[in-house]
Amino acid sequence: MLQATKDIFREEGIRGFWRGNVPALLMVMPYTAIQFTVLHKLKTFASGSSNTENYINLSPYLSYMSGALAGCAATVGSYPFDLLRTILASQGEPKVYPNMRTALVDILQTRGFRGLYAGLSPTLVEIIPYAVYIWHL
User: Fold this and answer.
1) 19: left (phi over 0), alpha (psi -120 to 50) or beta
2) CATH second-level architecture of 21-135?
3) pTM above 0.70?
């Protein structure tokens, strides 16, 4: 870790530690909004009431499924930002994309809209247990 820190600082300066941070921040907002909204709607549907006190009476299975589906919906809704964050943070020198806009335009031109969702399947497999765990803390 120390060697990577030195390399990043030597090659890119202090700004290199924040590469990919803007799309990461942009990803958090829709992810959280979608996850909370979908979770509330699913638990309301499952419990038959929008009163959050009734959510505690849900079976563990329904609670698990609600959390998993909310996590999946949030992931699908915010995945393009995650993809852009990963691309910007992992590119070496020389940089292929100087900024998020350039990366977005290139992906859309070369791979189309579907290119924004490249790698979504393994991310969904990973998010299900994570989303369930978070909502059961």
Assistant:
1) beta
2) Alpha/alpha barrel (1.50)
3) yes
